[in-house]
Specification:
- The protein contains 11 helices and no strands.
- The chain is mainly α.
- The protein folds into 2 domains: 75 residues, Orthogonal Bundle (434 Repressor (Amino-terminal Domain)); 95 residues.
Length: 185
């Protein structure tokens, strides 16, 4: 899987290059300052075909033209901001995540807190309307959460049966869950 984890850095770099603030970009794009901040801080990732990404690109190109900034033509901005993940790869993770959470009766509020996500964002990930910015961090975090919960013998037994690993003392639950989440079924 390849995910463009440089989106936030690229967006901030463009703003620095333009000498613009996040507020300037919000005003130009019509997006909220909170959304711009989430994009810059790598807390959210827009969809390639989504309206937000189009607004970002248009706004940056407009600002570049107004400020006569060289090197920030539409093609360059698109190349810097296009998300290069494969939807099918995350779809497999999402499906496995939903299976894991439903089969094991996971408390979403506790999991969201463990992952440092808002519970509503976790719900959007489950529904497919959002995906985490850093997918590898998400997968690893879910694995770590399950590893902590596996101190409960009932949970561990159900988890091992679900992901297809033998219950041994040496099995690394975190890495096994992470691997399992990424498998296409």
């Amino acid at each position: 899987m390849h995910y463009n984890t440089d989106f936030g850095n690229n967006l901030c770099g463009i703003l620095n290059r333009l000498g613009c603030s996040r507020k300037d970009l919000a005003d130009e794009t019509g997006l909220s300052r909170a959304s711009i901040s989430r994009y810059c801080n790598s807390q959210r990732l827009p969809r390639n075909e989504g309206r937000s990404l189009a607004q970002l690109i248009d706004g940056i190109v407009n600002l570049a033209e107004k400020l006569q900034a060289d090197g920030l033509d539409r093609k360059t901005v698109e190349d810097l901001l296009r998300v290069t993940d494969k939807k099918d790869d995350f779809e497999a993770i999402r499906n496995n995540f939903n299976l894991l959470t439903s089969q094991l009766d996971v408390n979403y509020h506790k999991l969201a807190g463990y992952l440092n996500y808002d519970p509503s964002f976790l719900s959007r990930i489950r529904s497919g309307s959002r995906r985490p910015y850093d997918v590898e961090h998400f997968v690893h975090g879910v694995g770590e959460y399950c590893a902590e919960r596996s101190s409960n013998p009932v949970f561990r037994k159900k988890l091992c049966a679900l992901i297809g690993v033998r219950q041994t003392k040496t099995v690394n639950i975190s890495s096994e869950v992470s691997r399992w989440l990424q498998e296409k079924r």
